[in-house]
Amino acid sequence: MLEKSFELIFHEHNKMIVSYLYSLVGNRQDAADLAQETFVIAYRKMDQFSPEKSVAAWLRGIAKNLARNSIRKVYRHREVLLEGNTIENLFEGLERQAGTEKWESSLAGLEKCMEKLPEKQRQAIDMHYLSEKSAKNISESMGVLERSIFQLLWQARNNLKNCVRSLLKATGKEDDE
Amino acid sequence: MSNPRTMELFERFLENSIDADGWRELRDIMHADAAIADDLRDHAAIHALVATKYGKLADCVVWESVSAALQGAAVGGAGSGAGRATPMTWIKWAIPLAAAAGIVAMAYLSMTGRQGDEQGAKAAVVATVQRVDGKAGVLMPDGGEILALAGESLRKDQTVRTEAGALVELRLVNGAMITLGEKTDLALLVGGEGNEALLKRGRLYCDWKKDVPSDRTLSILTAAGHRASVLGTRFELASDGVKTTIAVAEGEVLFSSAHDSRKVLAMQRVDAEGDSISPSKNISLSEIASWRPGAERAKDRHVWRFDKGMPEGFRLIYGQGHFEPKGATTGTRLVAEDLLCAPVNFTKSTMPFTVIVKGQIFNTVKPSKLIAVHASDTRIPAYKYWVKSGWHLRPGNLEFHSVFIGEKILNVLDDDVAVVRQHDDLSGYEGILVMLENCIVNEIEIRPLTAIEIERYKDIDAITRRLTPGPSAVRASVFAPTAPN
Questions:
Q1: Has the ipTM of the complex gone over 0.90?
Q2: How far, in Å, CA of B418 to CA of B434, rounded?
Q3: Side-chain-side CA neighbours of residue B134 (13 Å)
């Protein structure tokens, strides 16, 4: 019965946790491993969880500690991502914007922002994420320098970041309230 | 930020493809400008979000792998040393190794109380001990016994036993809360579809909410051969192996012996020995499970007071209880299970009106306007129906209806026909109001009776014989039949 309840928690927060860990470690397989470990630890510690707190935030706390250990061992240069609360604030803000902790709902804002991207940026994003092409491959497809693709991706993400922040502000659920 | 070199370093950083020189360069840039470091974090988050939305990131972890991890070996720390033996990889090896050794790791299984053995898991958890006062134990099917402790998980076929002066509170997986008194043995969820308990001896108090789905209802048998099937209630059950007593605080319970059954309502008690079940006896709340901590000592009835001069109207009472209007008419017993109408007409009442309903949780009183219930154009005064011909009351789709005839308030509670024939003398009334079971009537058709109906209804005895009066029916056959106009 406890595992059944926990399975519900897993399905509700799994994608968010994987996403969060990926933002920290930058590697899909590592993010997946750490996400699994996060849920196993959370299951162990369920009796320590206070129901009045946010499940999502609690899980991210566990995930961050695991990511910290991983980063120190494998990706030392990513330690800068653990500093401050910028990433947490963004994830939290998206959840609050959706009004629930449903991760699918919180990504709806991102979709709106994607639609506003200029065509070339959108193209670069599609090839990079949907088709999983490297910047080098994209540059060959588009007939431009690799450096140009880096700029396109950076600009696309910058636009998405600003758009998401605007959405959060507009709904009054800015994460720095 | 518009520096192309910085953008490139950023991108390589995010994708973990940055080399050592590139990292040192980016690090120096970030140290020089905290805003750039924040920018990097934002991009890392957006990168992850887009990968989740549009990439294969979301499919990385599936429940099966987590579930296997919970049941497998304990997970080590994050990451690893050389060779990057990740926790996921470690678990993949741990399970085959453990299986080869014939031992399943216990780390997470203890949380669910499952015992690992070569045959697989034992019976599922059916209850949890919430509280133990005094000495109590759990008897195993194999004859062993362990102490009952708060937090303990209990399984099918285990028996909870309390000693003298002890008390145990259990929460069943189906939602019921059961309090065991002293010297009580209760075997858990022994049969049926996992929703039967057996009271071998002693007494218990069961708390089961009314709105639990009926397919999850709970039955408690006694060693004396009686069974209480919960329909949504709080009740006390006691048995010494020969006799059984049940006292219902709220809701209702179907109480049965081998060949008889009785629906026991709120504030009622029945005793049973063998096949014999006594008539229901009305009791007060304080007589029910007074041994239980926190037992209700509050008043066993609710009182709603309505000011004098209240306009006419119906009072909706949900649940069960005894309705006593004062200053209006004689009392009427309310017995329907759900929505019930206690019609109260006291236009220009000169004194406060009191409704007293026994029982607690399921009873609610709401004032309501009189609902027009006649289908004809004939206007029926609010509280007096002077009928010139026969009435034919039909069920319909409003929620309730009541009939006020003369000075009697009559609850029409059935889905059958009620016929009232008026006496010729308009100063009085006579007729038959056939009261039936659980009728929801909302339409009055006033018309002359047809010849067939006259014929049909002239035999009062035959009509009233169809009724099965009991606690769930209100009888109002107070009139003598007369010939219609």
A1: no
A2: 5
A3: 15
Of B23, B41, B75, the CB nearest to A86: B41
- For B78, which of A29, A37, A114 is closest by C-beta distance? A37
Q: Which of A 57-96 lie inside 8 A of B, CB atoms?
A: 66-67, 69-70, 73-75, 77-78, 80-81, 83-84, 86-87, 90-91, 94
φ, ψ of residue B240 in degrees (nearest 5)? -115, 15
Q: Do A110 and B70 touch (CB under 8 A)?
A: no
Residues 109-138 of A with CB under 8 A from B: 110-111, 114, 125-126, 129-130, 132, 135
Residue B48, judged by CB atoms within 10 A of its CB (0-12, 13-18, 19+), counts as buried
- Cα gap B52→A41, rounded to integer Å: 23
For chain B, positions 91-150, list CB contacts with chain A under 8 A. 107-108, 111-112, 124-125
Query: Does the beta carbon of A11 lie under 8 angstroms from any beta carbon of chain B?
Result: yes
Whether A135 sits inside 8 A of B11 (CB atoms) is yes
Nearest to A164 by CA among A117, A114, A109, A119: A109
The verdict on a CB contact (< 8 Å) between B65 and A36 is yes
The answer for residues whose C-beta is within 8 angstroms of residue B360's C-beta and 6 or more apart is: B249, B250, B285, B296, B298, B300, B302
Residue B131 forms beta bridges with which residues? B169
- Asked if B258 has any chain A CB less than 8 Å from its own CB, the reply is no
User: Are the Cβ atoms of A41 and B75 closer than 8 angstroms?
Assistant: yes
**Nearest Cα residue in chain B from A69:** B78
Interface check A42 vs B, CB under 8 A: no
Question: Phi/psi class of residue B6: alpha, beta or left (left: φ > 0; alpha: ψ in -120 to 50)?
Answer: alpha
What is the spatial distance between Cα A47 and Cα A27, in angstroms, rounded to a whole number?
31
pLDDT tens for chain B, 485 residues: list them. Answer: 667 888 888 888 887 778 778 888 888 888 788 888 888 888 888 888 888 877 667 666 677 777 777 776 333 333 333 323 333 333 333 333 333 332 333 332 222 333 333 333 456 778 888 888 888 999 988 888 888 887 778 888 889 999 999 999 988 877 778 999 999 999 986 555 557 888 999 999 988 754 455 555 678 888 888 888 876 677 899 999 899 999 987 777 889 998 888 888 777 899 999 989 998 887 766 677 878 876 554 334 444 454 544 444 444 443 334 444 433 332 233 333 322 334 444 343 333 444 444 443 333 444 433 333 333 223 222 222 222 233 333 322 222 233 333 222 333 333 333 444 333 333 333 333 333 333 333 334 444 445 555 555 555 444 444 333 322 222 222 221 222 22
Q: Which amino acid is at B349?
A: S
Residue A129 to residue B80, Cβ atoms within 8 A: no
- Other beta carbons within 10 Å of B68: 17
Answer yes or no: do A24 and B40 touch at CB < 8 A. no
Going by C-alpha positions, the residue among B347, B276, B272, B338 that lies closest to residue B309 is B347
Cα–Cα distance between B484 and B482 in angstroms, integer?
Answer: 6
Q: CB contacts < 8 Å between A and B, how many?
A: 193
Inter-axis angle of helices A108-115 and A146-170, nearest 10: 130
